[in-house]
Write a structure and sequence with these properties.
One of its GO terms (molecular function) is ATP binding. By secondary structure, the protein is α/β, with parallel strands linked by helices. It has 2 domains: 226 residues, P-loop containing nucleotide triphosphate hydrolases (Rossmann fold), CATH 3.40.50.300; 105 residues, Alpha-Beta Plaits (2-Layer Sandwich). The chain is built from 12 helices and 13 strands. The strands form 3 sheets. The chain has a 6-stranded mixed β-sheet with strand order 5-6-7-3-8-9, with helices on both faces. A 4-stranded antiparallel β-sheet has the order 11-12-10-13. Helix 7 links the parallel strand 6 and strand 7. Bound molecules: adenosine-5'-triphosphate. Adenosine-5'-triphosphate binds next to strand 2 and helix 2.
Length: 342
């Protein structure tokens, strides 16, 4: 899909219906041959939410966004946008999208290209405003084929926000941007959120999800394995990380079974004398360590970042033998502490 075709026409006005959910997936399946790209996905987005869609490579994020935008049809289940089909919601101009694959017309200026997007939008904003809001008013006269990757992304963003859409869908919008450009981009995006828009963005930058989103969805093998605030997802994965050294017993061993049986432990790793525990209640776990008569040395207790929580829950989901469609967020509690999570 081109970025141009992502810019849609219609009556939107920056305020979503309060009644119908903005987006609703019901038992949606999408296969590509033997690959289950989206597997029994149930999902609802509500007006005004800023939602991050996370998941490892191949988790089904882009496919889910394609289904949401009516670019693909589900094999089974249903997708509704503003209470109607994606095609009708898009034809009504309520959805703006910025997709990974959006090619840009090359032999035109930034202003001409964004102006075209405005021309196609019945509730368009003036092109100067769109350029300014996207932070590209300074490069309006530059040819599109002379832009850096980060500038191209901003042009795509401008085209997706050329008019008064109620929902903005962004597939990895900050790919190719440096840290400064990313920060500037999200400052721009916050302006859109403040105008009452619902925003759904797929990202691999977990710090973006943590900082920007008020809701985080984690997809794995096409199924939703976690849905909550970043704080809730961290808590679900075991919010605290406890590290200490233990002296071995007379046989030169550390009693792993006793440590595994400690209360509130959701992950355990023992390397030499060093014990690493993930716990959802560090106080309760440590009280029990002392009650066992152990004498931990070099004790450290720290919070788990979203990145570590994300790794923990996707690894837990990968470890379960159940099909992706039936995997739930409770799988988080089955994870073992992995060295890679630290
Ligand atoms: N057109 C297609 N034909 C065949 N398989 C596809 C097609 N599109 C996606 N897939 C497969 O479907 C699965 C989900 O892919 P998708 O692109 O939705 O994942 P993603 O979460 O967006 O990944 P990434 O983070 O790498 O962009 C993958 O296994 C992918 O190889």
């Amino acid at each position: 899909m081109t970025a141009t075709s992502a810019v849609t026409a219609g009556h939107g006005g920056g305020s979503a219906d309060r009644g119908a959910p903005v987006v609703s997936f019901r038992a949606v399946n999408k296969n590509f041959g033997a690959v289950r790209a989206v597997a029994g996905l149930d999902l609802e987005l509500r007006a005004g939410e800023t939602v991050a869609l996370l998941g490892p490579n191949g988790a089904g994020k882009s496919t889910a966004l394609d289904l949401l935008l009516g670019l693909r049809n589900p094999d089974s289940g249903s997708v509704a946008v503003f209470g109607t089909t994606p095609a009708k919601a898009i034809a009504a101009g309520r959805v703006g999208a910025m997709l990974q694959s959006g090619g840009l017309m090359e032999d035109v200026t930034v202003r001409e290209l964004v102006g075209l997007a405005c021309d196609l939008h019945p509730r368009a904003y003036p092109v100067d405003r769109v350029l300014k809001d996207a932070g590209i008013d300074g490069i309006g006269d530059r040819k599109v084929n002379k832009l850096s990757g980060g500038q191209e992304q901003r042009v795509r963003f401008a085209m997706a926000t050329a008019g008064a859409n109620d929902l903005i869908v962004l597939d990895e919008p900050t790919v190719g941007m440096d840290v400064t450009a990313r920060q500037a981009f999200w400052a721009t995006m916050r302006g859109q959120v403040e105008q009452g828009r619902t925003v759904l963005f797929a990202t691999h930058y977990l710090e973006e999800a943590d900082a920007i989103a008020d809701r985080v969805l984690v997809l794995h093998r096409g199924a939703l394995i976690a849905d909550g605030t970043a704080a809730e997802i961290k808590a679900r994965a075991g919010a605290r990380r406890i590290t200490f050294d233990l002296d071995a017993d007379r046989d030169g061993r550390i009693d792993e079974a006793a440590l595994r049986g400690l209360p509130r432990v959701v992950g355990l790793d023992i390397t030499g004398p060093t014990v690493r525990i993930r716990s959802d209640d560090a106080d309760a776990t440590m009280h029990a360590v002392y009650a066992l008569g152990l004498y931990p040395r070099n004790l450290e207790v720290s919070g788990l970042g979203l990145e570590q929580a994300f790794l923990a829950i996707t690894e837990a989901a990968a470890d379960t033998a159940t099909p992706a469609a039936t995997t739930t967020a409770t799988a988080v509690t089955a994870t073992a502490e992995e060295p890679g999570n630290r």
